[in-house]
Q: What sequence folds into this?
């Protein structure tokens, strides 16, 4: 009933009244319970005289073919390559060969956003490249990438980058820059997330200031953030302002849409979930590999021990930058380690194997972090689930905290289940299916729902 893709390989749903069989994630209108029969495989459904649904295409799914995903990924690639050529929703539908409602559904499912936002992001990204590599003036660049008015260009450029175009143009040669904070920005969430381990050797928080170590193209360095009332001053050593800007935009969650989530929560009658936290955004790790490390180290251990493992790993492979900060691990450094080198650091053998193996896959280009960052949530999930040692919780953590996708739920997370039990006044903590059911109404903003649930525990405790 929740159309949850987590169950697509667990069973097949047969609909006796229509004579079809579907994936659990099928978005077709739900049949009456008395007309439903469940099967363990497609073969069982066929033997019962049922045929494949043309909407969810279960045969293609089990053969590894996802025509809808391929179609939408192709469309998004075309938009990214030529953002000025595809302007209206009608043109996108025509290019993809699908209707309006199907386009919105597919973009939401695979990219966790809207067609309009896909186009706007592609145009802003194209403008960023031109600002860095072309001498053209701002107005010419705005129209070249497809914006119809300068006001719309400036509004969206500022929303996604936190600065005006001319300031962005200076980033490649600057060691400092200022980012304007969105309205109702919750700086405490960022400072709290990066300051959650007071002994961290990768981050340090003091008052309204945050120091974070990072790896740049030229080597390791430090980014120093000083939060003001409406903006944040960023100063970088060891790298360029451009490299630091990318990481800071991730950290601040500038590409998220908290207002839409807050409106949905109110519509559902759950305004109390966001009370006192309007404007809250999901803080992301400075780099995607940081999230990879967290997702593996945080499996089946408490947070305090995960912090300890991260500190020990960082001190083993990182470069000392200050008396307090050490550069974070790189895939190439971790790939050179052996399991026996990590065992004395209190890594379990399995955890050490998982981290080293994944790092070697990245170093050997068997998996590309850049492809994950530039692709769909569906493709990223499939790729990550194929990695030994990454289960659904780890993958959804990576999708949320590393890739910034907006409609994820790390099933099995004790914080989320505890918060759901408290928020909905349940007698027992919900299991996986019940968690999926309770979170379904928050789609396509389930990541922010998870964040507010986590925050509610801190607020009430």
A:
């Amino acid at each position: 009933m929740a159309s949850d893709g987590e169950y697509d390989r667990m069973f097949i749903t047969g609909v006796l009244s229509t004579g079809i069989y579907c994936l659990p994630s099928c978005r077709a209108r739900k049949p009456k319970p008395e007309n439903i029969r469940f099967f363990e495989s497609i073969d069982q459904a066929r033997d019962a005289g049922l045929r494949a649904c043309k909407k969810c295409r279960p045969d293609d799914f089990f053969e590894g073919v996802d025509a809808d995903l391929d179609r939408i990924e192709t469309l998004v690639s075309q938009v990214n390559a030529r953002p000025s050529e595809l302007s209206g929703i009608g043109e996108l539908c025509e290019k993809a060969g699908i209707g309006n409602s199907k386009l919105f559904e597919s973009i939401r499912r695979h990219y966790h956003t809207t067609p309009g936002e896909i186009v706007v992001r592609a145009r802003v990204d194209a403008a960023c490249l031109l600002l860095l590599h072309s001498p053209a003036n701002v107005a010419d660049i705005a129209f070249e990438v497809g914006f119809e008015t300068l006001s719309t260009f400036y509004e969206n450029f500022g929303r996604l980058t936190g600065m005006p175009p001319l300031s962005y143009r200076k980033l490649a040669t600057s060691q400092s820059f200022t980012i304007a904070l969105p309205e109702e920005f919750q700086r405490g969430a960022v400072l709290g997330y990066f300051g959650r381990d007071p002994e961290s050797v990768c981050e340090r928080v003091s008052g309204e200031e945050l120091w974070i170590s990072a790896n740049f193209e030229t080597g390791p360095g430090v980014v120093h953030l000083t939060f003001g009332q409406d903006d944040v001053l960023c100063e970088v050593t060891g790298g360029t302002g451009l490299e630091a800007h990318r990481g800071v935009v991730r950290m601040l969650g500038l590409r998220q849409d908290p207002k839409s989530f807050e409106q949905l929560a109110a519509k559902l009658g759950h305004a109390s979930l966001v009370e006192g936290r309007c404007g809250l955004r999901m803080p992301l790790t400075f780099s995607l590999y940081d999230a990879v490390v967290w997702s593996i180290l945080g499996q089946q251990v408490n947070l305090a021990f995960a912090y300890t493992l991260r500190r020990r790993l960082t001190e083993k492979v990182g470069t000392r930058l200050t008396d307090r900060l050490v550069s974070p691990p790189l895939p190439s450094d971790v790939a050179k380690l052996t399991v026996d080198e990590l065992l004395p650091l209190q890594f379990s053998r399995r955890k050490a194997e998982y981290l080293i193996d994944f790092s070697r896959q990245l170093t050997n280009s068997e998996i590309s972090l850049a492809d994950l960052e530039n692709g769909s949530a569906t493709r990223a999930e499939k790729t990550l689930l194929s990695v030994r040692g990454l289960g659904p919780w780890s993958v959804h953590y990576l999708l949320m905290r590393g890739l910034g996708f907006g409609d994820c739920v790390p099933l099995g997370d004790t914080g989320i289940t505890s918060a759901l039990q408290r928020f909905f006044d349940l007698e027992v903590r919900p299991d996986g299916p019940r968690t999926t059911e309770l979170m379904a109404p928050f789609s396509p903003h389930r990541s922010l729902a998870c964040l507010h649930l986590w925050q509610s525990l801190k607020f009430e405790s």
